[in-house]
Amino acid sequence: MSRIGVVIEIRDNEIKDSNFGIITAACGDDTHDVCALIFDNSAEDHKETLEKYGVKTIIEITSDQVALNMLPDLKAIALVDAMNEFDFKTLIGLSSPTGRDLLTRTAARLNVPSVLDCIGVDFTDHTVMKSHFSGKTIAKFKLASEYFICGIRPNTHEAIERPLKAEAQIVSYSPIVHDKKGIRVRKIVKSSSKSVDLSEASTIISGGRAIKSAENFKILNECASVLGAAVGASRAAVDSGYAPHSMQVGQTGKTVSPKLYIACGISGAIQHFAGMKTSKFIVAINKDKDAQVFEKCDYGVIGDLFEVVPALTEALKTMKNEA
Amino acid sequence: MKIFVCVKYVPDTAAYVSIVDGNGFDDSVKHVVNPYDEFAIEEAIQIKERTDGEIIVVTLGKAHATAAIRFALAMGADRGIHIKVDEILVDTMTTVEALKIAIEQAGAADLVLMGKQSVDSEGMQTPYYLGEALGLHVATDVIDLVLEKDQAIVQSDLGNNEIAEIELDLPCVIGATKGLNEPRSPKLPNIIKAKKKPIEEIALEDLVPSKPVNRTSLISFEYAPERSQAILFEGDTAVVVEQLVEVFKEKALI
Amino acid sequence: MNFELTEEQNLIREMVNSFAETELAPSAKSRDEEEHFDRELMFDKLAEQGLTGIIFPEEYVGAGADYISYCIAVEELSRVCASTGATLVAHLSLGANPIYLFGSEDQKQKYLIPLSVGEKIGAIGITEPSSGSDAGSINMKAVRDGDEWILNGTKIFITNGGEAETYVIFARTDSEADKHHGISGFIVEKGTPGFSFGKKEEKMGVRSSPTMELVFENCRIPAENLLGEEGGGFKMAMITMDGGRIGIASQAIGIAQGALDHAIEYTKERKQFDTSIAGFQGVQFQLADMATQISAARFLVYNAAYRANEGLSHTREAAMAKLMASETAMKVTTQAVQLLGGYGYTREFPVERMMRDAKITEIYGGTSEIQRVVIGSSLTK
Question: A55-93: string of b/e by CB count within 10 Å (b at 16+)?
């Protein structure tokens, strides 16, 4: 049984939901020994959750000397050491900014190929599927190497619980690393908003040029809070100053892959679709029945977003209250 | 300061990509400078305007990719190196090896800039591998760059409304993204002047006689599945919303 | 023989194309409706891009580009906004170019450089109420008085009139000499006493490009403002017009291309009998003809521009280019309106504006009839 290392991302002391899908992918048909990699001492807190999804081993990678999470190069070196120590050459993680950073530094360190943003992986053949040409094509790549390192686009694999008979084993690993001080994260600044993370959200509601002002985003925010959704924006909305760039979905913005993407007043430019094409369900709300977006969505509402969205929010609220 | 900027000539996002023989594509469509690379070029020019120095643009691509270098030269870069290839797609490991040798041959870099990813292959990895190959530290998703005496202080966008402030020793490799600056469009007189700036051409085989064994290879291309005809709702808002909520329930989306 | 554009020419096309799409397109419709010349947008921004002196060498703070690059720039501007194309052609080919070609070094320093960098707008004055673009039949008078010339007369249909600061004015300096030798050129600045503006024309097309009447009543200008030699005006006007025709032809190509682009986009989207009408052969044949005619005209324009650039004779080629390009623009825009049907006739879509704009290219800078005269006489002389 070959071992697969899965880098687990933890935020605010909780495992990010999008991790479970990639754990499921790693479990495959139970032919792999899935080993969760955590870069702090919280394995005990997460043991129960990880077991539920079929994780057999949890490795805590920490350092007594340095804060690994602030030293990207050392973190990669520690991971390489762990791969040697625990004998696994297959490594996956989320293709999130943090995941991409660690996985690619690790692969570069090993001088082996890796692929990010995969929407499909085959652990036996060492092949991956990934989007190419801004989502227009899907390319299949083979990684010629004994190593197999890839980052998986969040939400592309559905999480399935598969409880274990045996308890997961926790192993602590503290490689000796020396801080050469070449690169260091000084601090991580969080913006005050407690909104749902856009790139890993399972539901996203986005506004386009038709939203007309920054204030009007509150219509989307209200709907989002009922849906538990993150709020995004099209480039047109960002360029018009209605939303900050951090909210931009599409080319030169974020790539997202939620279960449900609701595009409000977005015309449907190819550059926007480049960032959300792999969403499971796309719903478009637009008053222009000829808008391009209707050609590329699953469900379309021809109507004014200023009427439809508040009505939707109310309907969802009522439904919630009834439940 | 000697600044290298790596650029890629990519099919315009708006261009239709037609797959040829299942593992290639028709590259006669309109090409542009990779949009993320424009941030890197602009940053290099702004640094040069402040501190003086030389900007060398490096690209790896087919013959037509000189247009990407010309574009960067018209924006304000000083000279170009074109690593010429015949294939349309070259893997990251080979590309990095070629870029590394080309950069080292052209002199010690004080800074290497590039876009954080290309919009065609969407790899997002070249900055890391090139940094490792050159023995330099790397930061990517960079939205702000401040150069101090021996260090670069960057703000890196981690998504989720989080920004990391990273310090790294110079020289280093920076992956630029939107927010770093507003790339200028080349002014006409500069386009004409760019004609006189030198572009050195080197064949890939001369830099990398044999491709690295460990690399990715493309097996196949297919068109991303298109959505079937959308189901459209129109008419009374209350009714339409009811229908939509039904769909959400049915598909377990809420 | 090489039909490929150079990398620089391609870059210039992309640059002007994106400038036109982002800057000019949003207001093209409203400026047309309001007959509004937005100087900041339609001229100052061209200057920022280095377009106002595109063909002049660096010593006159120009961009040093070739004539084909200039054609490409005018074409890309006109594809989106023919009025801006008209502004640039009148400024550069007609206002600034004669100063570059025939001016003294002092005149170039004083007048050409501000035009080239785009601090000032240029214009030309040939047409009069009783004479069209025929510089030979000019009636306006210029009389020498000591160190000055005194101008009297009226010029009409002057593109950039009122907005321009620097005018090249042709007037009769010798009523005894034959019609080709009694004309001289002068540089006249806006604000010179005795020089005023008459009525602003209300036009069918290129409505955001100003067209005005110039009135000279005992307008005194210094003797050194004589352009070239006394009596050399006719020849200068004819050479200037050759360049102007290449510019207007480029404008016509741009208008036609803009209309074709809209027609293609529309026919691909418009569904009839469950299929997009672009799939119908009848529609495809029309689009094919439009594209072919535009290509043919464009090559005539580039040929004339190439010859101008190389210093070869190009009077006939410029006339052919303008004749073909302007008639193509009229045909193609009319066809585009037809392809868009009812929508094409509404002001919601830009093709009706393009059709109105196209018409002027068959008229100004010498009508199509005049072009045929020029071509015909060159064949039979």
Answer: bbbbbbbbbeebebbbbbbbbbbbbbbbbeebebbbbbb
- Type of residue at B23: N
Angstrom CA distances, A106 to A21, A90, C330, stand at 22, 12, 64
For B95, the enclosing helix (H) or strand (E) is helix B92-105
Chain B residues with CB under 8 Å of C18 CB are 185
Residues of chain B with Cβ-Cβ distance to C19 below 8 Å are 185
According to DSSP, the residues that pair with B162 across neighbouring strands are: A190, B159
Could you read off the pLDDT of C158-207 as tens digits, one per residue? 999 999 999 999 999 998 888 788 999 999 999 999 999 999 999 999 99
Max Cα–Cα distance, chain B, nearest Å: 69
Note whether B63 contacts C: Cβ–Cβ < 8 A: no
**C-alpha angle C222-C117-C28 in degrees, rounded to nearest 5:** 110
| Inter-chain touch A104–B248, beta carbons under 8 Å | no
Chain centroid, CA C28 distance in Å: 18
Distance from CA of B54 to the nearest CA of C (A): 22
Do A58 and A36 contact (CB within 8 A), yes or no?
yes
Burial class for A40, CB neighbours closer than 10 Å (0-12, 13-18, 19+):
middle
> Which of B12, B188, B192 would you mutate first to test chain C, the one with the most C CBs within 10 A?
B188
Amino acid occupying residue B100: K
Tokens of A53: 């999804």
Interface touch B70/C48, C-beta < 8 Å: no
Contacting residues of B for A186, CB less than 8 Å apart: 153, 165-167
CA distance A103 to A153: 13
d(CA A159, CA C34): 60
Kindly give the residue spans of alpha helices, DSSP state H, lying in C35-138: 39, 45-48, 67-80, 82-89, 97-102, 105-107, 113-117
C79 to C15, C327, C341, C354: CA distances (angstroms): 14, 16, 21, 9
Question: Which strands sit side by side in the sheet containing B151-159, from one edge to the other?
Answer: A183-190, B162-169, B151-159, B137-147, B172-176, B111-115, B2-7, B54-61, B79-84, B199-203
What is chain B's pLDDT, residue by residue, as a tens digit (254 residues)? 999 999 999 999 888 889 999 888 899 999 999 999 999 999 999 999 999 899 999 999 999 999 999 999 999 999 999 999 998 889 999 999 999 999 999 999 999 999 999 988 888 999 999 999 999 999 999 999 999 999 999 999 887 778 999 999 999 999 999 989 999 988 888 998 998 999 999 999 999 999 888 899 999 999 988 887 889 999 999 999 999 999 998 888 87
Q: Which of A83, A138, A136 has the alpha carbon at shortest distance from A112?
A: A83
d(CA C15, CA B250): 50
- Please give the structure tokens belonging to residue C83: 């009025």
Q: How many helices (H) and strands (E) does chain C have?
A: 14, 10
C-alpha angle C123/C128/C134, rounded to 5°? 85
pTM score: 0.83
Interface test with B, best of C4, C6, C8 (most B CBs within 10 A): C8
Contacts of residue B118 in chain A, CB cutoff 8 Å?
none
Nearest to A113 by CA among A98, A136, A130, A97: A130
Nearest CA among A75, A6, A91 for reference residue A39: A75
Give all chains having 3 or more CB-to-CB distances under 8 Å with chain C.
B
Tell me the H-state helices in A53-198: 72-85, 97-110
- Amino acid letter, A229: A
Distance from the first to the final alpha carbon of chain A: 45
- DSSP-assigned beta bridge partners for residue A6: A36, A92
